[in-house]
Amino acid sequence: FARGRQFISHLNDAVGAIKNRINGVEVEIMHVGGARFVYQPDFVPSQFFLPGDYDQKAPYDQWTSQQPTGNQIIFQLEKKGDLEEGEFSREVIRELFDGALVAMEIQPLSTPEEFSTFGEGSLIFALWSGGSVAVLWDGRSHLDLNLFTYEKSAKFAQRFTRWVKKKTTFSVVLRDEMPRGYGRVVNFLGDIVPRHDPHWWV
After folding, report:
1. What dihedral do alpha carbons 81, 83, 88, 90 form, nearest 10°?
2. Pick from 27, 31, 7: which is nearest to 18 by CA?
3. Smaller CB count within 10 Å for the chain: N or C?
4. Its pTM surpasses 0.85
5. Is 131 helix (H, G, I), strand (E, B) or coil?
């Protein structure tokens, strides 16, 4: 039963049978262990395939066409435990946002936009010649920081986040960094400069 190829199907049948036999009983599968490779002793492959056996023209064209121009970094920050009364508000978040712009010597092209007519939190956005930043507060203990810069490294974003952490009790729980540009960019500039053919292009 446990070793058959139809294990999951049989398991679902067993769950259904238990529910049908005993009225009012809820069955929950907590864990299924497995997914091991089938071992084939003394296996000898019939053929080896190398990169040259495949048409690499399309991926090579993509590799050479991409032009990274900046970085986008998304941080999620959260406060552990309960918030103290009055610890955060839309006014506090706006003050924090404006303070970060001053500390980072950012001069917005116009007054930062704030949206707070929806939900319990707020969204603040600023655009400057070197990039853009958006801060989303859920009205409780979660902040999303979405930062784009034309700088080719993540140092600016790290400085910005350190300033926010210094002024609050939030901690970074997630960080996601992505290159931005044109030409179907998927690599950071440092990954492809100096330009050279990838090892798989033969």
Report:
1. 90
2. 27
3. N
4. no
5. strand
